[in-house]
Amino acid sequence: MTVTVLLFASYAEAVGRSTIELEVESGATVRDVIDRIREIGNATRLPPTPMVAVNEQYASRDRELRHGDEVALIPPVAGG
Amino acid sequence: MTVTVLLFASYAEAVGRSTIELEVESGATVRDVIDRIREIGNATRLPPTPMVAVNEQYASRDRELRHGDEVALIPPVAGG
Amino acid sequence: MYSSIVDHPIDVAAIIERVGRAANGAAVLFLGNVREVNEGLEVTGIEYTAYRSMAERELASIVEEAAAVGDTNDVAVEHRLGELVVGECSVAVAVGHPHRGRAFETARYVVEELKRRVPIWKREHYVDGTREWVSAATSKPETQLVDIGDER
Amino acid sequence: MYSSIVDHPIDVAAIIERVGRAANGAAVLFLGNVREVNEGLEVTGIEYTAYRSMAERELASIVEEAAAVGDTNDVAVEHRLGELVVGECSVAVAVGHPHRGRAFETARYVVEELKRRVPIWKREHYVDGTREWVSAATSKPETQLVDIGDER
C67: which DSSP letter? Predict the structure, then answer.
């Protein structure tokens, strides 16, 4: 199945991309996606356990994904 | 000696005047002035122990007055 | 630091402007407005009066205290006197600060002290044509207060 | 209730207007402005970016929560994105309430939650031409943070 990974701000810089279409196994979790992204990116700026949102809502790293999910890696927020 | 008594808002209404020149004995206190004003005014709207300012600063009822002092009887404030 | 008792409508943008400095990441503004209902009575307007010279003095003291406690000089307050209609602004307090927590606390300090100490009074005008002096401590018309001695 | 992410300068007067009702005796406004110095570094401007759809959603949730907790519908917030120079306003929060304590608390709630949850990021531009993503939790440029695991 396919999920879309969104990267923002410093994470987009670290990985060098802001959107990645990822092919993952059925039953894959957020954690699996993070591990895959870390293989692509610059690990010193992408922490092992970034905050994550699935389909625009904060989610835990144990969250099981479904085909078509939008997984966003959220750097420390700094609004205001 | 003479002091000037200022009355405001509900107290001015109760007493019917906003300024009173009062002749008092040397050594008179704020308390003495209040008692004199109560004789003039409507006691149900002028409490026995109103807040008082002498020369624009809050003062206790024991404060001894001097000739020329400005004694203001301060109704419950309601700014804002 | 700025404090003033005025007889004209308050220019809110000008008050905000007074506390805006490039070092300040945060500004907090408080506006007091004339409410249409108080203690169940329908209000048409409020008349504010003051012991003006003392009110100016107290307001200036409060701003100085707030600046010292809040560690910022960017504190401004303006209180209006006269006849105001429902919805009009009677008081504006603005505080600028590098940090938001301090900006909130300092603005609150000014508002609370102003309501406690500054010799300003208000008389509410009701739809039935009556008017009453209002006690801020209770929000009740003063005639509903019993004369039981020291008010403090 | 009103919340919006915008790309244009924030109209502060319009935000205040949104929370002004005749039943409200108090309005509290918070403004976040671009500071000239952060952690000793001289800043010329800030670039705000967001996960926009989620930011809009979170902002709307925060306003709803604030309205429920504060017991008022008069809650408004606007956050600006893009390039801002020193002194410009990045965020405005306004709350109207019959009572001032609640107005202060509700405004504070919105500001704190916004800074905690809304996916917006800022990159500071310094006088030496460099730029750094800033972590709000520490106010430090992110490159000064050590990668030690979970940031929460």
Answer: H
Q: Which residues contact C17 (CB under 8 A, 6 or more apart)?
A: none
Task: Report pTM.
Answer: 0.90
**Is A58 in the D-facing interface, judged by CB distances under 8 Å?**
yes
Q: What is the pLDDT of residue C140?
A: 62
Q: Tens digits of per-residue pLDDT, D80-102?
A: 999 999 999 999 999 999 999 99
pLDDT in tens, C100-151: 999 999 999 999 999 999 999 999 999 888 999 987 666 666 654 433 333 3
More confident residue, C152 or D43: D43
Higher-pLDDT residue of D87 and B70 is B70
Q: What pLDDT is stored for residue B43 in this prediction?
A: 66
Under a CB-based contact definition with an 8 Å cutoff, are residues C151 and B50 in contact? yes
Q: Cα(B67)–Cα(A9) distance, rounded to whole angstroms?
A: 73
How high is the ipTM of this complex?
A: 0.90
Quick check: D41 contacting C, CB < 8 Å?
Answer: no
Do C67 and C75 meet the contact criterion of CB atoms below 8 Å apart?
Answer: yes
Residue from A18, A55, A58, A77 whose CB has the most chain D CBs within 10 Å, to mutate: A77
Tokens of B59: 């003062």
**Beta strand pairing status for D41-50 and C37-38?**
unpaired
Judged by CB atoms closer than 8 Å, whether chains meet at C98 and D35 is answered as yes
Kindly tell me the burial class for residue D118, based on how many C-beta atoms sit within 10 Å of its own C-beta (0-12, 13-18, 19 or more).
buried
Sign of the Cα pseudo-torsion (B74, B75, B80, C6, in order) = negative
- Give the pLDDT confidence of C48-69 residue by residue, as tens digits: 999 999 999 999 999 999 999 9
Measured distance CA(C89)–CA(C87) in Å, rounded: 7
DSSP for residue A41? S
Q: Does A76 sit within 8 Å of D137, measured CB to CB?
A: yes
3-state SS class at A72: strand
Q: What is the pLDDT of residue A57?
A: 96
Residue D108, sorted as left (phi over 0), alpha (psi -120 to 50) or beta, turns out to be alpha
CA distance between the termini of chain D:
29
Q: Using the beta-carbon criterion (under 8 Å), do B48 and C147 form an inter-chain contact? A: yes
Side-chain-side CA neighbours of residue D79 (13 Å): 29
